[in-house]
Specification:
alpha/beta; five-stranded parallel beta sheet; six-stranded antiparallel beta sheet
Length: 357
């Protein structure tokens, strides 16, 4: 099972009015454990008013910088984001899990590639890490960033992005889209739309030259851009995305209801973790294996509990489960009986899941 380590905060500063950037002081003896590739995230843990609160945040730093930075945007009534933005100080200690996540592609130093990046708000964090890394390690590659925000003041990392453009002059193009501030160019006003994606494909990029696309933001934005790019001829294998945790869509609700309708009450659950077994009976109070196991006293890895981050991934060894939601696992992983325990609903009388995966 992934472990948390007590890590000291090296720096914390306001990037915008409602977003703080936290830099961690990773000890030399832990740097190999905390090595990462662009696009990965850190899971942070803190006891807040007696509650174990965990959240995952993408690294906005690049592996080439030998730094570990995350950006935490203030969320309305968000327990962890409020703590970070209002209370966290230099030299405070947070429990931090080593980097994880599969968002990103391998570096190919000698290959000439064209990358497109679409980000909304704090979705810039993994995108920034990718842009810095690909430009530094792939000298023949170019990047185009399409970045959506409310207004100019809310643009996270604007100064750093501009510095990167100057450093790699001619290899990074930036297009800022604003929803609450008018620009002279009409194309840059308002949210991404199918029409704008089509216009961009005619004026800014040639779909036949695009190597990979990375999208980070709300579900509706991601799937719209994905669908438009595939309609234009780009392979789905070249489109990579990471979702924000958001409210359930009607389709999500139907899928969750269908999974719960098959649920078996009183299922005997066996948890395999760290070479040990943990047994308990899952009652109707809980609608997923993770919450039931935590309530029974198990110590298991988790972060978002929204089916997005994959921190709670496990393998079904016996019995059957159905997932209410799944935004983190690929089809190949699901075919190997991997599930997200925070979304796993048991549908048989006995279920065994292994967290040592």
């Amino acid at each position: 099972m992934p472990s948390f380590f007590p890590i000291k905060v090296k720096d914390v500063h306001k990037e915008t009015e409602d977003c703080s950037v936290v830099t961690f002081d990773i000890p030399e003896e832990l740097k190999s454990d905390f090595s990462y590739h662009q696009g990965q995230h850190l899971t942070l843990k803190k006891d807040i008013n007696g509650e174990d609160v965990r959240r995952s945040y993408s690294l906005c730093s690049s592996p080439v910088d030998d730094e570990w930075k995350v950006a935490v945007k203030q969320i309305f009534e968000g327990k962890f984001s409020t703590y970070v933005n209002q209370e966290l100080k230099v030299n405070d200690v947070l429990e931090v899990m080593p980097p994880s996540g599969e968002f990103g592609v391998d570096i190919q130093q000698e290959v000439e590639k064209t990358y497109l990046f679409f980000a909304a708000g704090s979705g810039i964090t993994p995108i920034l890490s990718m842009i810095k890394t690909h430009l530094a390690k792939e000298p023949k590659s170019t990047c185009k960033l399409f970045y959506l925000n409310k207004n100019a003041k809310s643009i996270i990392f604007k100064e750093e992005i501009e510095q990167i453009r100057n450093k790699y002059f001619g290899r990074l193009e930036i297009f800022y889209f604003l929803t609450r501030e008018q620009r002279d160019i009409e194309l840059l006003n308002g949210r991404f739309t199918p029409e704008k994606i089509q216009t961009l494909s005619k004026t800014v990029f040639d779909i036949e030259e695009v190597s990979d696309v990375f999208i980070c933001g709300p579900e509706q934005m991601i799937f719209m851009i994905r669908d438009e790019l595939t309609e234009l001829g780009l392979s789905k294998n070249s489109i990579h995305y990471e979702l924000f945790v958001s409210g359930l869509s009607e389709e999500d609700k139907k899928r969750a209801e269908a999974a719960m309708a098959k649920r078996k009450d009183g299922t005997q659950i066996t948890i395999l973790d760290g070479g040990k077994e943990f047994h308990f009976a899952m009652t109707k109070e809980y609608d997923n294996i993770l919450d039931a196991a935590l309530a029974a006293g198990a110590d298991l890895p988790f972060a978002c509990k929204g089916g997005v981050c994959s921190t709670c991934k496990c393998e079904v060894k016996e019995g059957n489960v159905e997932m209410k939601l799944n935004y983190a696992l690929e089809k190949e992983e699901v075919a190997q009986n991997l599930v997200l325990s925070c979304q796993a609903v048991p549908t048989t009388d006995q279920v065994t899941v292994d967290f040592d995966v």
